[in-house]
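**Backbone description:**
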Amino acid sequence: MIRLIKKMLIATALTIALMATAWAISLEEAAERVARQYDAEVVSAQTIERDGRRIHVIRILTRDGVVRTVRVPADER
């Protein structure tokens, strides 16, 4: 009985981990969205971890020639 419970807990944990990954936005997706939203060119893009959370940091060049930094939480769609 205890083995069955352990297996069920492991399966549940794996399912939750896979669901969290499915909800995450990729760096490429984030960069494309930011470029469209600001009608700009992506200069650089990287993913950092801050306080245990992943954040995509996208640098863009706007049509006005201004470089902006946009941060997108990696775990939001």
User: Anything to note?
Assistant: The beta strands are 41-50, 53-61, 67-73. DSSP finds two helices and three strands in the chain.
